[in-house]
Each structure stands twice: as structure tokens, then as C-alpha cells.
Design brief:
By secondary structure, the chain is mainly α. The protein has six helices and no strands. The longest helix has 27 residues. The N and C termini lie far apart (36 Å).
């Protein structure tokens, strides 16, 4: 089931880039990001209430709060940079560079989470990096 959700995530991420590029025309990138964020917040809280998960708020540990907040800050910074990049650049060049996050994530997962960085992972990272350069240059 995780694969289906991951694939849907990729499809929606692709739609996000195309829809954002059209929608951001003539709009300040920070304002556009704020509008997008309000929609995301509304959707996320709707899912919380639809699945009756709101009762879990009291059970969240301080550590989880801290890291969820830091993750939110990182997401916000990413979205602000991404929207500015697609506003002034070509989506077909911005998106591949943005997807270098896959390589960076794998490296960080190995360093900070002690996840295995296998030869297959190394080859995949090298191919993603080379593919990014190929697409952007």
C-alpha cells in the first residue's frame, strides 16, 4: 500500500508544479506560497477530523512536537524557495534540481538515522545526480 501512496504523491507533486507555475503568474511568490499553505492546512485538518485523529494531540511527546515544528519550518522554507524558483525559472529545470532532495535525504538518513547506504543506493544517487545535471544543462 505504501507504494500506491508514494506513486500518488509523485503524481500530485507533478500536478503541483504545473498548477503552481500557471497560478503564480503575476503573483508575489511569498503570497502564492501563503495561499497554498492555507489550502494545505485546511486539507490536513479536514483529514484529522474525518479520521477522528484529533484526540491524539494530547499524547504527542515534547520531542515529537519539537521535530514536527522543525519539519514544518523546513517545509515552509522549501516551499518559499521552490515558489520563487518556479516564478523566475523554468519548471522543467527547477523540478529536477528540487528532486535532488532524494539524494540529500538518502545521505542525511545514512548520517543521522543510521540507515543503510548500500551500493545500490550509491548508484541510484549517482544516477539521479547525473540525470539532474543532464536535464538542467
Amino acid at each position: 500500500m505504501w507504494f500506491i501512496f508514494a506513486l500518488l504523491s509523485a503524481i500530485f507533486a507533478a500536478l503541483t508544479s504545473i498548477l503552481a507555475k500557471v497560478g503564480i503568474d503575476g503573483v508575489n511568490s511569498n503570497l502564492a506560497t501563503a495561499i497554498r499553505t492555507v489550502v494545505v492546512v485546511a486539507m490536513a485538518w479536514s483529514m484529522v477530523f474525518l479520521t477522528n485523529a484529533q484526540g491524539g494531540i494530547a499524547e504527542i511527546s515534547r520531542k515529537s512536537w519539537l521535530f514536527l515544528i522543525l519539519s514544518g519550518v523546513a517545509t515552509g522554507a522549501s516551499w518559499l524557495c521552490y515558489y520563487r524558483a518556479i516564478q523566475i525559472g523554468e519548471v522543467s529545470k527547477v523540478v529536477p534540481i528540487d528532486k535532488l532532495s532524494v539524494v540529500i535525504t538518502l545521505l542525511m538518513a545514512a548520517v543521522f538515522l543510521h540507515e543503510k547506504f548500500t551500493p545500490k543506493s550509491m548508484i541510484g544517487c549517482a544516477l539521479i545526480g547525473a540525470g539532474t545535471l543532464f536535464m538542467v544543462l
